[in-house]
Amino acid sequence: MKIGLWPSATDSGITVQHTDWNDLSQAVRDLVQTHTGLVRTARTVTAGLNPHLAAVLDAVDGPLFVKGVRTDHPGVVRQHREAMINPHVQPLAPQLRWAGGGRGNELAGVRLHR
After folding, report:
1. Can you tell me the distance from the alpha carbon of 55 to that of 76, in angstroms, rounded to the nearest whole number?
2. Which H or E run includes 101?
3. CA distance 18 to 67
């Protein structure tokens, strides 16, 4: 039975293998969809150093980039910092639409332009 986004972090935090949307637990997909609405399609993004989840979602609310790390992964600190500074770097950076966590995961979503 799947519990979270991925197995507990055991790597150095420098690089990780990204998890596909369909490999996430239903509980985590439900958590994301509380922010995005129903996800119609998802494409895993293979670039990036820290997020276990990095995906472009076609959701009812529009296209989004969603990333996430387990709360026991060192990259969670960076993700928190990104969320804190995002309002201060507008319009240079994509606007953070939501950030939050649950079930041992920290997630963030950025609206993409259509």
Report:
1. 17
2. strand 96-102
3. 10
* All structural domains of the chain: 21-111 (3.30.200.20)
Q: How many CA atoms lie within 13 A of 106 on its CB side?
A: 18
pLDDT digits (tens, 9 = 90+) for 19-68: 899 999 898 999 999 999 999 999 999 877 667 889 999 999 889 999 99
Q: What are the two backbone dihedrals, phi and then psi, of residue 84, each rounded to the nearest 5 degrees?
A: -70, -40
Locate all alpha helices (DSSP H) within 40-96, ordered by sequence: 75-85
Which DSSP letter does residue 109 get?
Answer: E
Highest mean pLDDT among 6-10, 51-55, 85-89, 97-101: 85-89
Find the largest Cα–Cα distance for the chain.
42
